[in-house]
Design goal:
Layout (H helix, E strand, L loop, with lengths): L1 H6 L3 H75 L8 E11 L6 E4 L12 E3 L4 E8 L4 E5 L6 E6 L5 E6 L6 E7 L9 E4 L11 E10 L5 E8 L8 E6 L23 E2 L1
Antiparallel strand pairs: 1-2, 1-12, 1-13, 2-5, 3-4, 3-12, 4-5, 6-7, 6-9, 7-8, 8-11, 9-10, 10-11
Amino acid sequence: MVADHRFRALEIPRGVMLELLRPVHTLADWPLQKWQGFSELVASREYLARQNKLLEEENRQLQIQQQQLIDLRAENHRLSDLLHATSALRKTQRYQLARVVRVALDPHSQMVQIGLGRAAGVFAGQPVLSSGGIFGQVVHVGSSTAQILLITDSRHALPVVNQRSGQRGVAYGDGASGLLRLPYMPAHADLIQGDMLLSSGLGGRFPRGYPVARIRSVAAVAGENFAEVVAQPVVDPDRVQEVLLIWSDSTGETGSALAPLESEPADAGSVEP
């Protein structure tokens, strides 16, 4: 030991001994190395699983926010169109935005329900507009809701005028087909496919000059005095989510200046959200 300490006499034998024992050390360390490697692998998989879960949750949140942004953008576009539609109203007319909250279950009843009622000054017979044109009129009023009869309902009639020729007529709803018909137009009337029909303002119920429908077909039957005229409404009721209620200076907030409906619609029955 003294010789090895002072003169490193056993350096070579020690090196030989270490070289001979290296396989033994390697064999002894093998289980521990494998266990450490396995532990690191499990820990890495758990870490990646947690990270993946966090990223998935973040992705879901971003998708929800994106959908909300899309919805808000679409709503802003609709409201902008509605605001543009008010530019044709007279200064003496007041308007208010209302949201469609329900639609009629009965396919033969073209009605919707809005979230405003008598408390907001809504009255029976009140005209209702959408961003595209004439939408319908109020027929039933509750304290906080009201039902609107669409212009496509078979019980609805609307005085119109041809924008091109000035020909006047009355557009009746055709019910479930979603179309309008002008049944009493003379066979010689100046009407062609594609003509725009506007509200004439006759009767004092609807404001004048708002789009109603575009003529889809005109058929003159031989021997008949009247032509068969079918028109496509410019407003698709299934796409309307917000509408405008109109008040004029002559009606105030009670609608007493408006004549009642010629035929009061029957109760729409149940409605769906």
